Amino acid sequence: MEQNTLVATTGRGHGSGPSRRIRAENKVPAVIYGQGIEPISITVDRLEFRRVLNSAGSNAVITLDVDGDQKLTFVRDIQIHPIKDRVQHVDFLLVDAKQTVSVEVPIVFVGEAEELAREGGILEQVLNTIAVEAPVVSIPRQYEVDVTNVTVENSIRIADVDLGEGVTTILDLDTPIASGSLPRGAVEDEAEEAEGEAVEGEAASDGEAAQADDESSQD
Hints:
The chain has about 220 residues and is an alpha+beta fold. The chain folds into two domains: about 5-95, CATH 2.40.240.10; about 100-180, RNA Polymerase Alpha Subunit, Chain A, domain 2, CATH 2.170.120.20. It contains four helices and twelve strands, in the order βαββαββββαβββββα. Strands 1-3-2-6-5-4 form a six-stranded mixed barrel. Strands 9-7-10 form a three-stranded mixed β-sheet, with no helix packed on it. It has a three-stranded antiparallel β-sheet with strand order 8-12-11, with no helix packed on it.
């Protein structure tokens, strides 16, 4: 497990007034809860918190140095300002190294579906995340899914992804992650072409049958 440490301080006030002052100092009000403890109100540095998230991802496990006391935590919730796009508040869940947690792991596509592109098809991302249960020490940062072999007839399912050691999902393993489709116009053209071939085949069969009848009557 990657070690991510963040310094936190206690003693902040409660309510909107103190929270505004904390944010004005480029810090973030937060809380630690879980494991049967009383919630602990803390403050963390905004830039340091962003640095940890950028390094470890949204499912980061962070060791909080709370006034010199080390606490292993998991980022359970982040509140973002809807306009300023700034972190407003963070919930840290107190965990132990043997604990299993439920998380949504992001999916990132890699590679190019070249055959699908040659067919004029469109690559569709069906899932953006995979809901998993994972040991705290083994939470995947993201799943990289290679879409090179995706075609109209060949999709990628959850079963095709290595979730990681000790990681499970409650989702159906046949759930598609990436698939290929043709534009509606191309589908209609294919249908018309197939219908035309069928009509030509029927006409040819009728012609052969008529010729056979003529030959039979001449006999």
